């Protein structure tokens, strides 16, 4: 499949239709009628997807956003997820400062990771730090365990870094596991 795009035919920011022509671990190739583009695995969905071949198939028609039409070194860069609303932005707008429920997914040296339950088509995980801003111990590493259901307050959201800061709700309120 040639990577050559006729000059002026496609520009960064264009939305195009094409058919998936190949699926690899690193991404998905899309044939757009004479030229090819690549959707990097990180541009397929806002959610973490371990095996994108479970959601996409060769021959499937897709609409994609052109991230970079300059293709001296290979296929143009495409995105599927860029055409969908960013669930992190919606989460920040709706949940910042509010209490949400979630499930502890991992306990690490810096705190507990909690997958928040929200009415969005998203897999959002935030971090409860091991210490509160006032220096008091946060009930993350000693009291919480993987699989616990907890109530947490959304302290902050950094959309660009894809980070959510959480705090366990008051003692006795937060743990339901």
UniProtKB/TrEMBL annotation:
InterPro entries: NA-bd_OB-fold (IPR012340), Ribos_protein_bS1-like (IPR050437), S1_domain (IPR003029). The keyword Ribonucleoprotein applies. Residues 13-81, 97-169 form the S1 motif domain. GO terms for cellular component: cytosolic small ribosomal subunit. One of its GO terms (molecular function) is mRNA binding. The keyword Cytoplasm does not apply. Pfam families: S1. It comes from Streptomyces aurantiacus. GO terms for biological process: translation. Keywords: Ribonucleoprotein, Ribosomal protein. This is S1 motif domain-containing protein.
